[in-house]
Write a structure and sequence with these properties.
Length: about 400
Amino acid sequence: MTAPPIHHRLISFALELSLPLLAGVVTALVWANLDPASFFGFLHWSPVEEGHTVNFHFAFNDLFMVFFFAIAAGEITESCLPGGALHPLRRAVNPLLATLGGVLGPVGFYMLYVAVTGDWEIARGWGIPTATDIALAWLVARVAFGPDHPAVRFLLLLAVADDGIGLAIIAIFYPDPSHPVQPLWLLLVAAGMLLAWGLKRRRVRPWWGYLVGPGTLSWTGLYLAHLHPALALVFIVPFMPHARADVGFFADEEEHQTDTLNRFQNAFKIPVTIGLFGFGIANAGVLFSSVGNATWAVLLGLVLGKTLGVFLFGQLAILLGFPLPVGMDRRTLFVAGLNAAMGMTVALFVAGEAFTDPVIQGAAKMGALLSAGVAVITILAARLLRVRERPVTMGDP
């Protein structure tokens, strides 16, 4: 078989390492600090009218991220099929309990820092460190554990779940007084799910049918309910016809898959990965001068709270009779907890909602961005604990 051209291999390498996302983050940081007026003017310029919410920020956070979360939901769906890392479904209980620990731990450490410093002005930001950055966690997990390690799917489920909790925290604890939550509109989300189920029952195979009808209903319902519509397709993707268990987002085997779910993932994985460049620009523009107590509270909550919370609650799940996925043990659980300590996407969302003071908001966002440095620690810990070398057939708790 002829090897693919060098430029194809370079593109695949760049996409697999999420280099577009990292490039977007760097671009935003440099631009925001060199010329903040033009940067923030660009983010909030609207083609409709000045000050309108339809702008660059809206395009990536409310529209583009729909497809990112959808691909993550597809990965979890496949992992729950026979032969997947989370099958039988009782194996999903452990990462879900670990998710709970990964939410409570950061809140506890954040509030501990607030109490010790006495800076109660930042207490409102307790929800910021509860979320894990899916893109970075996915990237680093693939490097630390290997692309086919079950810990990657464990982290993916955990990240999607706690990002969902993060979005719920925004809706419940940081409501917009001018746009209160309207739960009645969630009936549109339920209608979208029902329509998707009906399409599957009628063996409708084109993936666009699930996006145009059910997906639009779900997005509209979340948007009108004043909940974040980025999760719209998470409720629809599990209904897409799928043929077999997970083979991985970047696996070559997916090229030969013809089921609806895999064709959807194949159609969007490259555009989504490239589009993360725009997401990085939309969310990572923080001034370097923005460092304060909120920075350290968020960082402490993520690095210590998230790591220990995931690890301890994962252990608790084992004691309750819910084992880790086959191929994971205590060492991989610890590294997975460390891997989950990178908060950016939803953490930046929450920071924007938690604080109106631009100084405190910037400091909180800086804490979320600095947590990306945990990536290096995670990879080193994986090497020292030799989690990548452990055979995937082990089920040792």
